[in-house]
Amino acid sequence: MSVIVRWAPSPTGRIHLGNARPALLNWYFARRHGGRYVLRMDDTDHARSTREFADGIEVDLSWLGIQPDMLVRQSERTALYDAARDRLITAGRLYPCYETEEELDRKRARARLLGKPPIYDRAALNLTDEDRARLEAEGRAPHWRFKLDGRPVQFDDLIKGQQTVNTASMSDPVLIRADGSYLYTLPSVVDDIDLGITHIIRGEDHVSNTGTQIEIFEALGAAPPIFGHHNLLTDAQGQGFSKRLGSQSIADFRDEGYEPMAVAIVATLTGTSLPVEAYDSLDAIAEKLDFSMISHGSARFDPAELDTLNARLLHAMPYAIAAPRLSALGLEGEAMWSLLRENLVKFPDIVEWSKLLTGPIEPVVADEDRDFLALAKALLPPEPWDDTTWSQWTNALKASTGRKGKSLFLPLRMALTGRHDGPELKSLLVLLGRKVCLDRLP
C-alpha cells in the first residue's frame, strides 16, 4: 500500500504545540513509509477562517521542517460535498430536522431528568411531507443529520489497538447547518475518499468521531482508512492547548528564538518511550519513532525541558550552520561562535554574549581585590597569546599571592567580563587580546 496521510488544520488562528503534534506525527509516518503528505485546510467555517491564518500555518509548517506534497482547501471543493450530500439523501441516510437550538436543549434536559442519555430522538424521521412544508412555510430552515446504524463499530487503531465505538449511544450527527454550510465531518470523509488517504493520524479526542466517520465512509461506498489516535499534549498545568484560550503559538516560539528542531522534538517525543533528546533532523526521528512507543497516558509539556533541549542543540551547532544567522545579527567569527555557543539558551542570546568580546562591559571590582587586580595587570604576559597564556598568568598570580580557586579566578572574571558566569576564561583571554585586558583591569 502506498501511504498517503493528511493533516487538516482549521485556519481560524495560529497553530500551537497541540496542533504541531499530529502535524509532525503524520510527517514522521509518511517519511518512514516513503509516503505522501497532504495539507488540507479545513476552511469551511467562513466566519472564522482567514487566508492570513492559512498562510501562517504554511509558514509554521515550513519552519518546523514539513514540506507538504499537496495543499488543498475545502472552500474550493464544495461541489464534491454537494454530490456526496445528494447521494446520502437519496439513500435515506441524511435527513432534514427542524428543531431550534432551544427545543433541542429542552429535549436533552428532559432526557436527563428521565435518566436517559441526552441523544437526539429522531423525531424528524416521523415528519410527513406536509409537516415539513408547514415548518418551512413558518420560516424554519432544516439542518441535516446523518442516520447512524446504531451498532458497535470496530477498528484496529495504529496506536491504541482494537477499539469499539457504539454509535447506538450517540446522536445522529448534524452534517449540514441550517444555513446550508457544512460542518467538519462530511467534507472530511469526502476529501479522505477523493484524495486516497490511507492513514488518519490524529488526537485521541477524535476516537468517538471515528465511529461516525467509518459509517459515513461505508454509506458512500468507500473502505475506511486506517486510524491512529495519539495521546494529547497538555500544557505545564495539564490543560489542553487551545487557540481560543490563547495558547502559545508556534509563531510565538519562533519569535522568542527557539530552534524549530527543539520545538518539534518536544511536541512529539513528550509522552513517548523515546527520550526527549537532540536529533539532527525530522527524518532521524522518523527512523526511530514507532507508534507503539506512544504512551496511552497524557503527555505534559515542560517549558524547562524545551529550554534545556534548545540549549543542547545550540551547543552542538557547527559554525557553518550558525554563520548565516550570525551574519544577519552583524556578527562573525568561528572562534567567537565556538567560545560563546556553550552559554546560549536561545540563538539571539549571542548578541548579548558577544559584548564580552566587543564591549561595552562594566568591569566589577571589589575593594578588597584592587591590589590583587593591580598585580594581575602588572603580571599580564606579553603577546603573542595562545592556550597556555591563561595558565602562565594564573600560576604567576598564585605564586605571588597564595590565592587559588574561586578567590583567584572570580575577581579576574568579574573584572574582564562583569559577570559571574560565562565562557572558559582560558579561551576568552586569547580572543580578548592583551590591550583589551589591560583596559578592563583597574
TrEMBL record:
UniProt GO BP: glutamyl-tRNA aminoacylation
Motif stretch ('KMSKS' region): 240-244
Residues covered by the Glutamyl/glutaminyl-tRNA synthetase class Ib catalytic domain: 3-274
Catalyzed reactions: tRNA(Glu) + L-glutamate + ATP = L-glutamyl-tRNA(Glu) + AMP + diphosphate
Superkingdom of origin organism: Bacteria
The keyword Manganese appears for this protein: no
Enzyme Commission (EC) number: 6.1.1.17
Entry binding sites for ATP: K243
SUPFAM superfamilies: An anticodon-binding domain of class I aminoacyl-tRNA synthetases, Nucleotidylyl transferase
Protein location: Cytoplasm
Occurrences of domain Aminoacyl-tRNA synthetase class I anticodon-binding (ranges): 336-441
Main location: cytoplasm
GO terms of molecular function: ATP binding; glutamate-tRNA ligase activity; tRNA binding
Keywords: Aminoacyl-tRNA synthetase, ATP-binding, Cytoplasm, Ligase, Nucleotide-binding, Protein biosynthesis
Catalytic EC class: ligase
Family: Belongs to the class-I aminoacyl-tRNA synthetase family. Glutamate--tRNA ligase type 1 subfamily.
Task performed by this protein: Catalyzes the attachment of glutamate to tRNA(Glu) in a two-step reaction: glutamate is first activated by ATP to form Glu-AMP and then transferred to the acceptor end of tRNA(Glu).
Protein's name in the database: Glutamate--tRNA ligase
UniProt source species: Devosia marina
